[in-house]
Every structure is written in C-alpha cells, then in structure tokens.
Amino acid sequence: MLIPKSHPRATSLHTREKLVRGYKEGLVVEEGLLAHGRGEMFDYLIGEKTSKPSQNAIKAAARALLKAKLPVISVNGNFAALCAREIVQLAKTTGAKIEVNLFYSSEKRKKTIARVLKKKGAKEILGIDPKFSRRIPRLDSARRVVDKRGIFSADVVLVPLEDGDRTIALKKFGKKVITFDLNPLSRTAQAADITIVDNVIRGMQILITTCKKLKRRGLQKKIKFDNKKSLSEAILAMKNNLGRMAHA
Ligand code: ATP
Ligand code: MG
User: Fold this and answer.
1) Regarding predicted confidence, which is higher, 223 or 117?
2) Whose CA is nearest to atom 31 of ligand 1?
C-alpha cells in the first residue's frame, strides 16, 4: 500500500510496513510483531512525536556513548528491520561496536540480520561467531549468550526494544544501559540508566544528529539527567494527552 507522506498517520503506517517486510525477510519473529503493537499503542499516547524529556534523554545517551571506552549497540530483529541504516551511522559516529543479540535465538536469523547491516555499510558484526560466545550471569539458556569482544566487555550498551529480564541482568553485570522503549512502565524502561521514551525510528535519527553536534562542540559541559524523573514526566505527559483526548 502506498501512503502519501502528508497523511497524518504516515509515520506509523510506514513503520508497520517496514516491520512486516522484516518479518517476511526473516529478520523479525511473530513475537516481535506483537511487541511492536505494544509500542504503537504508547506512541499514540505520546502523540507520535519526540517529547522534551525524550530529547533530554537523547542528549544524555549521546554523551554516555561518546564518553564510553567500549560502547556496544545490541541489535535484535525489530531494531534491524526498522533502523538498519541508522544503526550503522550511529556506530560510525560513536565508534560503537554492533552486536546481533536475539531474545529468540536462531543462527539463521542472526546471519540474515548481519547481512542486512553489512549491506548498509557495517564492517564488523559481533554475536555471530560462536568462538567468541560468553555468558551473562544470572540469565537462563540461550538468552544469556553474548560476544566476548562486545557486550561481555562493554561499559555502555544501547539495547533498544529489549526484554526486562535481560536488561536487569545486564545492569547486575555492571553495564550502563541505554534503551529506547515507548512503554515507560516496562521493566526495561524502569531498570535502564537512560530510557528514551520514543519510537526508535524517530529517536535514532535525533540521537545520531546529537552525537555529531556533541562531537563538534566537545563533551566538557555536563548535563543533569535523572531517569526516574524523566520516566515520571513521560507518564504524566501520556496522562495529560489522554485527558485532552477524553475532553475533545
Ligand atoms: P519488559 O520485558 O521490559 O517488561 P515487555 O515484555 O512488555 O517489556 P518486550 O517485548 O520484552 O516487552 O520489549 C519490547 C519493548 O519495546 C516494549 O516495551 C514495547 O513497548 C517497546 N517497543 C516496541 N516497538 C517499539 C518502537 N518502535 N520504538 C520504541 N519502543 C518500542
Ligand atoms: Mg519482556
């Protein structure tokens, strides 16, 4: 279906199409489609635009990625289907490594995702070669396998659209966790150090631009960021939007 760019719901409809394409090409699993549906509902509540608190969270995330010794971008099927080009751009801008890391692990799907990222210009993709597999403590079975050269050794990890158990395990393992999560109530949103409550498809573009700006200006200026406060603001903004919709 062709949707004109001027259509008020153009962004979410295009996003949905990208995800369905990703599903047909073997990047996304059924559960990923359901997770996207949950995200869309919250996107509706934030008015499908990047809020002020999310912009602040993006600034904090950009700074953390640029200051990190070993930043890693963790990529799952949904993230790859929605943002393959942006993932590569962000890795180039910040010097971060890219690791394919799946909740529903499958060697075939990992390779498909790696192929898509390479097509967009990625040089090295971690998480594929079992020779470098290591385990995150306190997580069960396949979900705990990470790359020794990537997440295992990282100080800062960007894990968008991630499951709560894994985020909590990464925190316990001493990582600084940045996430994109449209649901400010999810366990990932609550457990991360920096939660960007925004659609990853919008937020990634802004994150890349912010990193480029910060690199030009330097990282001297510290910024205050409190994740709990930022999440409360996101929840309040949703409540106010709901109130407005109810009285419209
Ligand atoms: P948790 O495990 O953290 O409690 P959950 O089980 O509800 O959350 P998961 O499937 O584990 O959800 O994680 C996916 C998360 O990603 C969900 O919170 C969902 O709202 C969010 N999400 C889905 N699509 C997007 C998107 N395009 N941009 C940002 N967030 C999204
Ligand atoms: Mg979950």
Assistant:
1) 117
2) 39
